[in-house]
Structures are given as structure tokens and as C-alpha cells.
Write a structure and sequence with these properties.
This protein is mostly beta strands and 420 residues long. The chain has one helix spanning 7-18, and strands spanning 52-54, 66-67, 73-76, 82-94, 104-115, 119-126, 139-145, 149-157, 160-161, 165-169, 179-191, 194-204, 220-228, 262-281, 322-331, 341-348, 354-363, 366-374, 383-388, 398-408, 411-419.
Length: 420
């Protein structure tokens, strides 16, 4: 099932956007000088007695612990890597029985080839994601977009998402048709008697030779880091309270079935190649990279409570990846009675960003009006683009302007202005 955000989810997305954190890119080297069985440098060493899983590069499908592959088309490349293609790819590395993955380092090299959604995700802390049992589908997911943006998201129950956190530019180069190494590190830590979860992702960049083949550099650099201490909440209508979790649950437990859980590799609508997939249970006692309390993008002024009564298919978000990129609370002394247009000073991250910006006027629990702007009308440098309205009737003493983006790449908004 796609993780579509209904209008109920928008408030959670807004909270996530307000709390993004960033750090100094490339400042932190790998902590462990050990190599794994593929010769890939470990960020953290394998825990004493900890489990390790490595994909069978001769035939990934021959491994009984590597599952959910039935809909995936596999073809082996001349360099020994494997190309995979399907509308949905959820390749799952299942833990040994009664030895669930908990504190893990998930590694893989990937080359995005073609598709409508350039995004790969490595994740763990749950089981198979299915609508037949929403409680199994919990996860922390490290995301790497085709335009070089890295982020973390959380799925509390399937498919109730809590929005992206710690979005940052991991690389300035587009990822299509070139190899990149990607790691997701997930582990618990204790502070003042409380258990929280630390999330770190890393990339090994510039690993493609002149023939388009992978050359492992082991030059791992920190991409995105976040600590879940609570408050990272989902307002998605798909949230299942019967699972015994709060909407902002800190996923300190391994999740999954009574005896097993998964670490997984995901894409949607994307053909890509992989090499050297692995999962290891880690000893995370090394020094950790610092988080700087600084937003990577300009945050919205205020996140409004967006209503859930917009009617049927007329939701502000209609596709899987929907993010609040700006909101503004407007106080009205009665002088504003109609709005003809809203001018947005915005830009897209790259020419390849593709999607729709939705601009909505929200008041007293109602969406008074909305309009859309396509990324084809947005430049890669800040410029003013107007969303036109048919003079909606604005009443009351305040209202909210909400700006959402659904699509690939990143669109940012510097300012919002009304034209009456």
C-alpha cells in the first residue's frame, strides 16, 4: 500500500517540517576501520555475537531469509551487480528466529536507472508491511532522493507516517546513472534513564568509474542524523491505536512478529541496480556525530490545523510523497475580504524536480480555496510565482495559507505574499 497522506496527515507533516535539523556535511569520518565480508568499511563494529546478513551476489533469490521478491524482476549485470524493477520493491532481509534486528547498520550500493520516483529507502524496526496486519509495519526509514537529498521518516503503524526529519543535501550531484553507497544506522541509547533512538545515514559518493562500473571508495560521510526523543507524531487517519503505540511512539522495540523482524530495501516506480547489500547488529558505543540545531530549509511561520472535511478525492495530498513546505498564519482585522492571488518566492532544487505545489487557504476548519503550481513553472533560483484564486470569501479574524509539495526533488519557499 502506498503511504498516501490524507489531510489528517498534514498537521503531522507540518510538525516534522518545523523540527528539521542539520549538521556540517562531510565533517565526520567513519568510526570503525574494520571491513565487512564484502570489503565495505563499517561505521560501527559488529556487536559481540551479533548477527550479520549478506546478500548472495551469485543469486539473491536463492537465500531463504531474503524474501518478498516475487514481484521483482531481477537481471544480472555484466559487472556482477543486479538490476531490479517493479512498481513496488520491498526486499526484506529477515532476522534469524528469536534473534530480531535491533541496533543495526544497513548497507548497500545502488545505481538509479529510470523511473517516476527516484528514491531509495533502507529501513528496520518492524515486520512485513501489509494492510492485513497494520501493527507489523512499523519502521525507521533512511531516504535518499535522486537529487541528492537525504532524510529520515518514521512509520508508526502501517501506513501511518510521521513525515520527514533531518532533510539535508548529502551530495550536489544527481544520482541517476551513477553508483552511490548508502548506509542506514539505527540504534537505541539511554539518557537520564530514558531510552531514545538515534538515526544516522551515510553515503560513499563518487564511486563510478569511466565505464559506469562501481569502484568502492569507502569514503563514508555523514548524510543525515536525527534523534527520536518523542514528539515526532503522525496524524494520519491510517494510524491504528489497537497496536498499543502512541502517535509519537519512539520505536525502541524491534517490532515484527513474535520471533522475527526485517531490515529492508525499498523503491517505488524505479528501476535500479544494487550491489553488496548487508545488515549487521552493531556495537554503537563509539563516539557519535553531533547534531547542530539549525534548520536546513527556512521553516514555515506557523503550522495550521488542516481540516479533514475537504471531501472525497479533493484532498490537498493525493500521492505518496507529500510535504509541507510553507505555512503562514494571517490575522484579519476585517480589511481582507477576498484574495485574488498568493505570490510565492520559491525555487526547485534541480531541473529534474517534478511534481505539484498545492497552495490552499484554510479557515475555521474549511479549505476555502486551493490552486496548484507545476514544477515546470518554477526556476532553480528563487523567483516569484503566483497561484491565482477566484476571490474566495474570507471571513473571521484569521486564516492560514498552506503550501504543500508532492513529487520528486525538493521545492523550497522563501516568502508568501497575498494580492487582494
Amino acid at each position: 500500500m502506498l503511504e498516501k497522506h490524507s489531510t489528517k496527515a498534514i498537521a503531522a507533516i507540518a510538525l516534522a517540517a518545523l523540527a528539521m535539523t542539520s549538521f556540517q556535511l562531510g565533517s565526520t569520518p567513519a568510526y570503525s576501520e574494520e571491513l565487512d565480508d564484502f570489503g565495505i568499511e563499517k561505521i560501527y563494529p559488529t556487536a559481540a555475537g551479533g548477527n550479520e546478513w549478506y546478500v548472495d551476489m551469485d543469486d539473491p533469490r536463492s537465500d531463504s531469509s531474503f524474501r518478498n521478491l516475487g514481484n521483482v524482476q531481477f537481471s544480472k549485470n555484466s559487472d556482477g551487480s543486479w538490476q531490479v524493477s517493479a512498481r513496488q520493491i520491498r526486499m526484506e532481509a529477515w532476522s534469524p528466529s528469536n534473534e530480531k534486528w535491533l541496533n543495526v547498520e544497513i548497507t548497500g550500493y545502488a545505481k538509479m536507472i529510470s523511473g517516476s520516483n527516484e528514491l531509495i529507502q533502507w529501513y528496520s524496526r518492524g515486520g512485513h508491511h501489509t494492510s492485513r496486519d497494520e501493527c507489523l509495519g512499523s519502521a525507521y526509514k533512511a531516504r535518499l532522493y535522486g537529487d541528492g537529498i537525504a532524510a529520515w521518516t518514521k512509520e508508526v503503524t502501517h501506513p501511518a507516517y510521521a513525515g520527514n526529519r533531518a532533510e539535508t543535501r548529502a551530495t550536489t550531484e544527481q544520482l541517476e546513472d551513477r553508483w552511490v553507497g548508502f548506509k542506514a544506522v539505527i540504534y537505541n541509547f539511554v539518557e537520564n534513564g530514558n531510552t531514545y533512538v538515534r538515526l544516522e545515514s551515510y553515503i560513499d559518493d563518487d564511486v563510478t568509474d569511466s565505464n559506469g562500473n562501481l569502484v568502492v571508495r569507502n569514503n563514508w560521510e555523514l548524510a543525515s542524523v536525527y534523534e527520536d526523543r518523542g514528539g515526532w507524531s503522525t496524524n494520519n487517519s491510517d494510524f491504528d491505536p489497537s497496536c498499543g503505540r502512541d502517535r509519537d511512539e519512539v520505536l525502541t522495540q524491534p517490532g515484527g512478529t513474535s520471533s522475527q523482524n526485517i531490515a529492508a530495501f525499498r523503491s517505488d516506480g524505479l528501476t535500479w541496480s544494487f550491489k553488496y547489500l548487508s545488515v549487521r547488529e552493531i556495537d554503537q558505543s563509539a563516539e557519535h556525530p553531533a547534531i547542530e540545531e539549525e534548520s536546513v530549509e527556512e521553516p514555515p511561520v506557523e503550522n495550521p490545523e488542516v481540516p479533514d472535511n475537504t471531501g472525497g478525492s479533493d484532498n490537498l495530498c493525493s500521492t505518496e510523497y507529500c510535504t509541507l513546505i510553507a505555512s503562514q498564519h494571517v490575522k484579519n482585522d476585517g480589511s481582507i475580504t477576498e484574495i485574488n492571488s498568493i505570490e510565492l518566492n520559491m525555487k526547485k532544487s534541480t531541473l529534474r524536480a517534478s511534481g505539484i505545489v498545492t497552495v490552499a487557504i484554510v479557515q475555521d476548519g474549511d479549505v476555502l480555496a486551493k490552486n496548484t503550481i507545476r514544477t515546470s513553472d518554477i526556476n532553480t533560483s528563487y523567483a516569484v510565482v503566483a497561484a491565482q484564486f477566484s476571490s474566495p470569501d474570507v471571513h473571521g479574524n484569521s486564516f492560514d495559507i498552506v503550501v504543500m509539495y508532492e513529487g520528486s526533488g525538493v521545492v523550497t519557499v522563501r516568502s508568501v505574499a497575498m494580492a487582494g
